[in-house]
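Sample intake sheet
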Amino acid sequence: MSFSDKSRHSLIPNYLYTPSSTTSLLMAKATTHSSPSLLSSPSPVNNNNINTGFVVPAPSEPFGKIEMYSPRFYAACTAGGILSCGLTHMTVTPLDLVKCNMQIDPVKYKSISSGFGILLKEQGLRGFFRGWVPTLLGYSAQGACKFGFYEFFKKYYSDIAGPEYATKYKTLIYLAGSASAELIADVALCPMEAVKVRVQTQPGFARGLGDGLPKFVRSEGTLGLYKGLVPLWGRQIPYTMMKFASFETIVEMFYKYAIPTPKNECSKSFQLGVSFAGGYVAGVLCAIVSHPADNLVSFLNNAKGASVGDAVKKLGVWGLFTRGLPLRIVMIGTLTGAQWGIYDAFKVFVGLPTTGGAAPPAAIEAAKS
């Protein structure tokens, strides 16, 4: 094996490139579209004629073949994360605007319908998209780190655990990988989130990012942009752990119990539908888990010099868990479903498989041996 081959393999979990006949057969099946009987009655395969690099075959590969867990794989996942998070969060800006105002001023914004009515009356239609620029930039940066580093840490922790334990404790690996990724992603998101909340909840503060960011820095200082980082971690890390671990588990259960056809025999459009459905269910769980911290983030970024104790005193413990929750369930459920749909659609576009489903066959074989 050449040096380049070794360096390439070092980026891949051992169980994903084990040169077993099972792996070779699966690769041969995917590339030649042979019949399903190939797996049930395997014939000898000449491994010398098959490239041992784990390459994902696909009917559409506009950028050429992408090896799993290669630098190009991480670049593709990063780009998919930018598209999935940036576009979806920008699209639901009106919902986010009403939700933030309900959290900050519940006396004025008593319900979802009245909140939309008040904003329409006071600010007009254009007011519904206040803060869309920091939303787009902040969540694009967050999505890049969230999805890109999740794939990296998932592989990294799988290698540490080894094939047997990686398969046995895959949910723990999903949780650890997503938490590690979100820890980094929130550092990228926090400054834009601070400006967004201030622009959306204080009419007259600024028109958008261009004048809002320098005004915020003059008022709070540069470090003030990170005042809400710890509450943001408190909101986003549990949210992302639930988002990724529950999605992977839900999709696997769909294919195992609800869909009679194996995943690799389903059409790509059907798999993307499963990704959206799994993402929506995961999003509802995410909203419930992370909502108290979301209320804290909105309160702290709106009130100068406010503390967590001030937020608890004003909102109450029950208010932290319930204020704005129904709207956030609708928003996050739709948002998360769309994010997984867009992310997996981009992966399919560049020739990668969709996320979730059964454990890799090579991993199962390695665990049995």
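Comment: Confidence is low (pLDDT under 50) at residues 1-59, 360-369. The chain is about 70% helix and 0% strand.
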